[in-house]
Known about the structure:
- InterPro entries: Leu-rich_rpt, Leu-rich_rpt_typical-subtyp, LRR_dom_sf, LRR_domain-containing.
- By secondary structure, the protein is an alpha/beta fold.
- It is 17% helix and 10% strand.
- The longest helix is centred in the C-terminal third of the chain and has 19 residues, at 207-225.
- The termini are far apart.
Amino acid sequence: xxxxxxxxxxxxxxxxxxxxxxxxxxxxxxxxxxxxxxxxxxxxxxxxxxxxxxxxxxxxxxxxxxxxxxxxxxxxxxxxxxxxxxxxxxxxxxxxxxxxxxxxxxxxxxxxxxxxxxxxxxxxxxxxxxxxxxxxxxxxxxxxxxxxxxxxxxxxxxxxxxxxxxxxxxxxxxxxxxxxxxxxxxxxxxxxxxxxxxxxxxxxxxxxxxxxxxxxxxxxxxxxxxxxxxxxxxxxxxxxxxxxxxxxxxxxxxxx
Length: 256
């Protein structure tokens, strides 16, 4: 490996890339290159720049090149579980993008370009499991956002502009050092619970313990032997049921 260069990873040829294109039930074409050991964005993918979806998750990518702007038909981009520490400004040119998954990377706040807010049609943005200490208030410009993942970062505040996004339905901020999620005092358990149960043989018990156990067992047996009391259901012995009267008089009714 040349000095000063990172791992090259697996080389993806145009033939391999073409064979990785799948047509989905909705007619979209997805380029599936997940778990391929890719460390550098393959330039040959420019020959397939008209695809609507790309899955490059679970690779070793550190950078997304500015040639990403060539993929103007892109609606769905999955880059989770790589080693990406920054995004190019050109990501903001993908105006048709509705889904962007950047979970489990090495993104810092500086690695999020301001142009990310140009994705006006974005509905799902996953930034969980990164190294974010703050979230740009400009993300409040993503007015179509429905789902936002910010879990497992180092966030101490969520901007009001983000919290008040008009269409936001799911905001995941779990496992961040946010003040509003500080651990509350453990509730007092008013019910006495058995944490440990030890079983021993009768011969190993002292006389006092044995008498105590036998007494409790006898009380339990008394409860088991108790028969239910008389029913509280009301009784009306003087009333006859309609069927009994009908049996006696049915011949008379037939004659009439």
